[in-house]
From TrEMBL, chain A:
Keyword Metal-binding: no
Keyword Cell membrane: yes
Transmembrane residue ranges: 7-28, 34-56, 63-84, 90-110, 117-135, 155-174, 239-266, 278-300
Organism: Lentilactobacillus sunkii DSM 19904
Membrane topology summary: Multi-pass membrane protein
MF terms in GO: branched-chain amino acid transmembrane transporter activity
Major site of localization recorded for this protein: membrane
Protein name per the record: Branched-chain amino acid ABC transporter, permease protein
From TrEMBL, chain B:
Single GO biological process annotation from the record: L-alanine transport
Entry keyword set: Amino-acid transport, Cell inner membrane, Cell membrane, Membrane, Transmembrane, Transmembrane helix, Transport
Molecular function as annotated in GO: L-isoleucine transmembrane transporter activity; L-leucine transmembrane transporter activity; L-phenylalanine transmembrane transporter activity; L-valine transmembrane transporter activity
GO cellular component, one term: plasma membrane
Top-rank lineage group of the source organism: Bacteria
Family: Belongs to the binding-protein-dependent transport system permease family. LivHM subfamily.
Cited InterPro entries: ABC_transp_permease, BCAA_transport_permease
Species of the source: Lentilactobacillus sunkii DSM 19904
Bilayer disposition of the protein: Multi-pass membrane protein
Cellular localization per UniProt: Cell membrane
Residues spanning the membrane: 12-35, 65-83, 95-114, 140-159, 191-211, 226-254, 266-285
Protein name: Branched-chain amino acid ABC transporter, permease protein
Amino acid sequence: MKANFKYNLIWLIVMIAGFYLINTLILVGVIDSFIANMLVTIGINIILATGLNLIIGFAGQFSLGHAGFMAIGAYATAIVTQTASSPVGFYASIFIGIIVSIIAALIVGIPTLRLRGDYLAIATMGASEIIRIIINNLKMTGGAAGMFNIPQFADWPTVYIMVCLTTIIIVNFIHSRAGRAVKSVREDEIAAEAMGINITKWKLAAFVLGASTAAVAGSLHASYLQTIAPNDFGIMESISILIIVVLGGVGSITGTFVAAVVLGVLDTVLQNFGALRMVIYAIALVMIMIFKPSGLLGTWEFSVKRLFSRSKRKERVES
Amino acid sequence: MQTFFQQIINGLSLGSIYALLALGYTMVYGIIKLINFAHGDIYMLGAFWGYYVINVWHFNFISALLSAMLVGAASGVIIEYFAYRPLRHSPRITALITAIGVSFLLENGMSYLFTSNTRDFPQIIKQVNYHLGGVQISNIQILILATSCILMILLQLIIKKTKMGRAMRAVSVDADAAELVGININWTISFTFALGSSLAGAAGVLIGLYYNSIDPLMGMTPGIKAFVAAVLGGIGSVPGASVGGFIIGILETFVQSIGLSAYKDAVVYFVLIVILLILPAGIFGKNTKEKV
């Protein structure tokens, strides 16, 4: 704890500085509501993609069902804040969303996580579709039309703080004992089991943590956009989260941030192209994958600690 | 009992379309371990080609079907050459994203060029309904079933009896060893794509006749359903894909007929998950033993 105090402090300062930077830019008027909208979308995508990167990149479990857990969070917020329309109600709804998605992740995960590779992907995709179809047919959730006039409590500072919080939780999980256990499961299940690691437990832990962050992102999405429909959380949404993870580099949280920002900006810029937008997007996607198959950053991770130790080493060499 | 048989007939016609698509998925997966997400869009291309040649060049059914198969095969080979071949040695998830990208490109490119409106597929074969003991069956349903059965038998013959089929099986077992004994891997993989995509092209024309409406996004849902069918049958297994396709088709029509059409997809996915839990490699999949 003490050993990393300096680096933690630096990260904290970076986060606060980032917050004030965006705040000033909004006050000055550099960031208009259009760009602020883009920033919020990027933030929500970062939360979703870091959670999925934990499942795919660090636990090695190919899940295609992230949108289902996002839907749970979104609908929890929509339903709760319609009766309790206050900030307290909003945070309570995030909490409820997390609890429900953890339960759903356990129900989905315990049986399916024994499957491997593409079989797991298709099973999780099926599970998320089942969640979506159930929401689509319930009275409470407004059916296929979805829910609208959800009170807006999530503005950009809320999203910013949530991005920081979920990233801290996930990164700390990865760097803890639990994270090492999860990574050993990814590398070799049999060897990990031989070392006394309960592979089912750790796979499930990563899956549940990823699912709960997806629920947080869903809550923010519902509260910010104020309208949601079951079709927002279909297979295509899961795939677009997967695209962010793979584009940034599977197993790199920094890469996820970079990819979410790049795709968010690309999407905003391409709005001007109208009908050609998705065509250009698709070509860009294929080109990036062909010329940079390991994703933008591969497994490279930005680390303040390494930055310091490298500059120290340099000083020593020079003296 | 009559409705039961009626649903079987309807399910078999729908299922044979899924089976044709699932065969393409399963062959490509068997040979390069790639979930070819663009497969459903080749089916869309086939349907649009059929629409075009029937309307403009006044092709009859057989020549429309055959030319759609050629177009499907050609587009499959082109996609493989430009998008998947450079990525053959990269992580599989990268190739998967590329496949999704190609699928987006085809869907949105077609919407851009031909607008995303739904079109009426020309009815070149006049629908005639036959009644057999209270069960109604149309000539189009018979045609779909017969065409897909013929195509599946042909495919089985190609895979089991020809030299190219033997090469395909060899590459899917061990690509490096196949190369050592003189099999041209690139050529074999292209051939696999051509075969699978030609089936998708045929399925496109058949579905155009059956549902008589086509649009650029029509490939998305059947594509995913067909992939589910391929996984259900055991991905990589050719008979498994056909069986999986028929199971999904019949299941869907039955759930619809008992009045749960809103839950039709949920039931399909639920059955899929249950079957995967009992048979983790699908119905016909080989269960490989774990080795340390």
